[in-house]
Specification:
- By secondary structure, the chain is an alpha+beta fold.
- The protein is built from 15 helices and 29 strands.
- The strands form 7 sheets. Strands 3, 7, 8, 9, 10, 11, 12, 21 and 24 form a 9-stranded mixed beta sheet that branches. A 5-stranded mixed beta sheet has the order 16-14-15-17-20. A 5-stranded mixed beta sheet has the order 26-25-27-28-29, sandwiched between helices.
- Helix 2 runs antiparallel to helix 6.
């Protein structure tokens, strides 16, 4: 492609609201442009990267035995009502009505549609397993779209689904997709980890894995063990539990109320009383399916709502509003404590271990806290369990090594759904014994447009991106320094035509621009291989740079440069 013929507009500076490095680089490099909050147009450069991602995904999904189809983005609301997700999915689900006042939704995912399709098309075990996938636009009305393509309201996704006669078949398909995902992300040049995760709004009856591209801007915390293969999302992470100390509280003084005017946070309480935060108890009031409950954790710990929700078996778990807090505690927000509460109390095991020797908590009275609280003596817990997030210092439950924390971008997720959707939408088949049975489902997603940002985060720098060869919109950038120099123009064009005829994605900067402008734009465009045609063109020499290996440049013959490009591109070493 000749650069002067492309819609390729680079920016010297990114908009101030572009906080993530990938967002800034994709805007400055002319890959995307924002149309509205969380909604982007892909310019030719960005679209080329999308197409390369799609090709990799298609090759690996088809190798795993999946057939491609295309389902509608606009879906009947009644399907979501059948599955129970029309209300459960929450405000992120975009709901509309057509001219006949029939409800429709813009699909954030396609479990309902594909299950109804399977229910209509499959009747016998002879038609199973069924493996389907699509690459299609999805819609989610995010409360706060941010970080460019990392969290948008409209995005491109690969979603796949398997239907089996039994759980063994589901496991085989699940493992096949896990292997395919490893190959996909390796081919994309990403540093990633597969981690145990929660199913979230998709739900299901079995294990689930998230694939995390490691990046500081990631919204998810990845918890890993440096000594064994344990890896989990923070929501799912488990760790060695502290042993509860001995004693029944008899040696601890009786509870004592302390006047703490205006003290509402653990940090303020710790400073006011001169106590360590781990000796304080944090009492959080939630509503579980509309009923208030309390969860108590150590002052230096955070509640893990996913663990709590699973313990309760609740469909909805939400922090209680201020009115509910005051109604159940008798005090405004900031003074809740377990003593005297008449709602179920869920006590984290670390808090229970710490409180054996007495702890401080809210007194359920404005401007008061209470010291020397001991569980079992001063309050009764409904249950004691793991209700907190892992944090620095916690140790692996498998091998005892201290856990490591990093940030990650979720780029893929695989689920064992079981019969969650097949039962709701009537997806049955006749088994070998002539009996009607439920199809066993799995679903598997990849955020295609999100992958672009993940790659840009990992391969970007201050001046631009150095794309992996497999994703680069152009593998090689040929840059004649001066458009007015006949020798440079002739040699640059000859190289361009030679490489293009060999099937290599090559960009020729044939613009009449200053060298500084050309090089700055080239950095932003991010081709991994660069050939600069300068003053030595008359001698048949060019400046060669493999940007994947650093900034080193080499003056070589133009023919040698063409051979190197061909060799690198044919090897696929990206």
């Amino acid at each position: 492609m000749r650069q002067r013929q492309m819609l390729l507009s680079t920016l010297r500076e990114a908009p101030a609201e572009a906080e993530a490095a990938s967002h800034r680089l994709l805007l400055r490099g002319g890959y995307v442009r924002q149309t509205a909050a969380g909604i982007y147009s892909f310019l030719p450069l960005g679209f080329r990267v999308l197409r390369k991602l799609e090709r990799i995904i298609r090759e690996e999904m088809q190798a795993a035995g999946f057939d491609e189809l295309l389902m509608p983005a606009m879906q009947p609301s009644e399907l979501w009502e059948q599955s129970g997700r029309h209300t459960e999915y929450g405000p992120e689900l975009i709901r509309l009505q057509d001219r006949h006042q029939r409800g429709v939704v813009l699909g954030p995912t396609h479990e309902e549609v594909v299950t109804s399709l399977a229910a209509a098309e499959v009747s016998s075990y002879r038609q199973l397993p069924l493996r389907l996938y699509q690459i299609q636009t999805k819609f989610r009305d995010e409360r706060r779209p941010r970080h460019g393509l990392l969290r948008g309201r409209e995005f491109l996704m690969k979603d796949a689904y398997s239907f089996d006669t039994d759980w063994q078949g589901l496991d085989e398909n699940y493992q096949a997709v896990v292997r395919a995902y490893h190959r996909i992300f390796e081919r994309c040049g990403l540093r990633f980890r597969a981690v145990e995760a929660e199913a979230g709004a998709i739900g299901g009856e079995g294990e689930t894995l998230e694939f995390m591209a490691l990046a500081d801007i990631g919204e998810d915390t990845v918890v890993t063990c440096p000594s064994c293969d344990y890896a989990a999302n923070l929501e799912k992470a488990v760790f060695l539990q502290e042993e509860r100390g001995s004693g029944d509280g008899d040696s601890v003084s009786e509870p004592e109320e302390v006047h703490t005017p205006g003290i509402k946070t653990i940090g303020e309480l710790s400073a006011f009383l001169g106590e360590r935060t781990e000796t304080c108890l944090k009492t959080m009031i939630y509503t579980a399916d509309g009923q208030p409950i309390a969860v108590v954790v150590r002052g230096d710990h955070e509640v893990n709502e996913f663990k709590l929700k699973n313990e309760l078996g609740a469909d909805r778990l939400e922090l209680a509003d201020l009115e509910t807090v005051e109604r159940v505690t008798g005090a405004p927000h900031g003074f809740a404590g377990p003593k005297g509460l008449h709602i179920p109390i869920y006590l984290d095991s670390a808090a229970a271990a710490a409180a054996v020797k007495g702890s401080t908590a809210g007194a359920n009275r404005k401007d008061y806290h209470v010291r020397h609280l001991v569980p079992g003596r001063d309050f009764q817990a409904e249950r004691i369990g793991d209700y907190r997030n892992a944090q620095t210092g916690d140790r692996c439950s498998r091998c005892g090594e201290e856990l490591v924390f990093s940030r990650g971008i979720e780029v893929g997720h695989v689920f064992k759904l079981g019969t969650k959707y097949s039962k709701a939408l009537g997806a049955t088949f006749t088994n070998k014994d002539g009996q009607e049975d439920w199809m066993i489902m799995g679903c598997y997603g990849i955020g295609v447009s999100r992958l672009i940002s993940a790659a840009a985060e990992q391969h970007g720098g201050e001046s631009g991106i150095v794309w992996p060869l497999s994703l680069a919109p152009f593998q090689v950038h040929v840059i004649p320094v001066s458009a007015k120099d006949a020798a440079q123009t002739e040699l640059g064009t000859a190289l361009y035509e030679k490489l293009r005829s060999s099937g290599i994605d090559v960009l020729l900067d044939d613009r009449d621009e200053r060298p500084g402008v050309k090089f700055k734009d080239a950095d932003l465009i991010g081709a991994p291989l660069r050939i600069v045609v300068g003053k030595a063109a008359a001698e048949g020499l060019v400046e060669w740079q493999n940007r994947r290996d650093g900034d080193e440049k080499e003056l070589i013959a133009a023919e040698e440069a063409a051979l190197r490009v061909a060799e690198i591109c044919s090897s696929g070493n990206g």
